[in-house]
Specification:
Layout lengths: L17 H29 L8 E2 L1 E9 L5 E5 L5 E7 L5 E2 L2 E9 L2 E7 L5 E10 L6 E6 L4 H37 L42
Antiparallel strand pairs: 1-9, 2-8, 3-7, 3-9, 4-5, 4-8, 6-7
Length: 225
């Protein structure tokens, strides 16, 4: 019997479970993630100032260290009266102030004007306010962010996480299903050359040799026993 010379056909590796596991984690964490963003963002926007650096709005020059690129605001402790403030960057250049038509309040502070820092460094701020002889103070803190923005951000982040997780689960589950339908059994070996035919064994019987003729004139003598 001849030997096989071909090699079995290769089977691609079955897709793993990592994508499905990641999808499940994203889908499960989508709701807590959205809630966390809403809670932290809203708390950051609405929390009162714990220990702000307070300056008297008497026209004196004050210095404020700003290290972030966030929009900053001048907050005053009294919404009434006239306010005249100016801000200069670390290079001494005037920074444009955007006065608000509606003063947003957080705790006992009211957002009066906003400005965008040009970079990190020490900023010079001067405010002079008048309100019937009442002392008015101000502080420099990040600008107010509407809590509704954080609510929308949390909902969108949760939805995106859930959608991505569901997509991963379906995508990898379909790939694994296709692999199982195609290669879910042990494939039969495929050979490059056909097997040679099996030859029949010869008949086991052996014919008798042919009888030789007797010489001319010879007679057979019976054998005596």
């Amino acid at each position: 019997m001849g030997s096989a010379t071909g090699a079995p056909a290769s089977v691609p590796k079955k897709p793993g479970m990592a994508g499905i596991v990641i999808g499940i984690v994203l889908a499960v964490l989508s709701v807590p993630l959205g809630i966390l963003i809403i809670v932290l963002g809203t708390a950051n926007a609405l929390k009162p100032f714990d220990s702000p650096t307070v300056f008297a709005a008497d026209g004196s020059i004050n210095q404020v260290s700003i290290i972030s690129g966030r929009t900053m605001a001048i907050w005053i402790n009294m919404p009434t009266g006239g306010h005249d403030c100016s801000v200069a960057d670390p290079s001494g250049n005037d920074v444009s102030l955007r006065e608000l038509s509606v003063l947003q309040d957080v705790g006992t502070w009211f957002e009066f004007a906003q400005f965008t820092p040009t970079g990190r460094g020490i900023y010079t701020v001067t405010c002079l306010t008048t309100s019937g002889g009442t002392q008015i103070n101000y502080t420099i803190e990040p600008a107010f962010t509407n809590p509704f923005i954080w609510f929308v951000s949390g909902v969108v982040a949760g939805f995106v996480a859930f959608a991505v997780g569901l997509f991963l689960i379906i995508w990898f589950a379909v790939r694994r299903g296709k692999w199982t339908n195609t290669y879910g059994y042990e494939p039969a070996p495929v050979y490059a050359q056909p097997m040679p035919p099996i030859q029949q064994a010869p008949y086991p019987g052996t014919p008798y040799p042919p009888q030789q003729p007797s010489p001319a004139g010879a007679t057979s003598t019976p054998r005596r026993w």
